[in-house]
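Budget justification, computational time. The allocation requested in the original proposal was used primarily to generate structure tokens for proteins on the priority list. As evidence of use, we reproduce two of the resulting records. The first is shown immediately below.
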Amino acid sequence: MKLLKRENWWIWLLLLISGNGTSNIVLGALLDVYDKDAWYAKWQNWVLGLVCFIFPFFIMLSIFIIQITCLSAAKLDVPGKEIYLSPYIWLILLIVPVIGWILFVTLLIYVTIWPLVMLYRGEGEKYIFSPENS
């Protein structure tokens, strides 16, 4: 089954709802957005975050999910990649009280929902591996 086909967008919707947004990790794997030299690929970082209490581990996990969601959204040509791919925007939204926090949640919802829209429009089909393309 080719999960990135246009007619399978509803499967991603069900995965998003049932998995609390962690389906974007699988979507990122299918879109090949992972970098072997990135911070999340080093197991030492995860062990250090886990050893230094549980709180840093969950912060790292949240940042990892947001980063992979944004990279997946950019790969699917979601509009606004200049904004949501910049880490400074995310930091500014976290630092500014109330309005920034509201915009942070809004931007998080935006990069979570729009990849579904782009899958519905057929943007994921160009990343389906087929033997004749290789």
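The second record produced under the same allocation is shown here.
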Amino acid sequence: MLGLKKFLFRGSAQANLPDDVRASLDLWRASKAPPLDDVHFHTRYVVVDIVSSGTNPESDRLLGIAAAAVWKGAIQPDDTFYVDFSTLDGEGSTVDRELTAFLLFAAKAPLVTYHIPYVGGFLQRAFKERLGVDFQPQWIDLAWLLPSMFDDKGDSVMPMDHWIDVFGLDAGSGRRDAMANTLLLARIFQMMTVRAVSKQIDTAAHLIAESRASSFLRRTH
């Protein structure tokens, strides 16, 4: 794992990036973000989870990224992404390619996760230190949004397993991997958007605003 830590967080952004990585980054930077004022059914959301060696983005290691797209009202089985960095120990250029591949996969879509400070913190550090990218996507945080949408089921931030139980989802037995968590979050997100529409929160822009407001209000009250 020492080698993994060294190459994943090297502290010299964009130093000696391969030409193909630079070209992919240019492509991603030049791409336009999708509109956020369309209805949920027409918006491609990307649900994201990570694996890490601990909970501190400043000192612990990012070990994996899992993502799945939700659009047209469904989880798209052929529109997923997964990388296990622990299998790439010592292959720094491959890490750069995988991180860039995630950027191209996400395609500047709104990102959905559970606890932005944790997931976003690790991603932001990796992209900044490896690629020189200030990773600032449009985030939707289910940890804060679910209590806002389903205050009859839980009026404060709860562990993810609480919502898995609330929605009667089959989480299997034992410890789940990142992709299993991502797919569970995607299913919860699908159900949450139905509730959101009933509250006239019917676009990505409205959902992002509600997520930010929920986080702010619950953190300050």
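A brief technical remark on that second record: The chain is about 45% helix and 15% strand.
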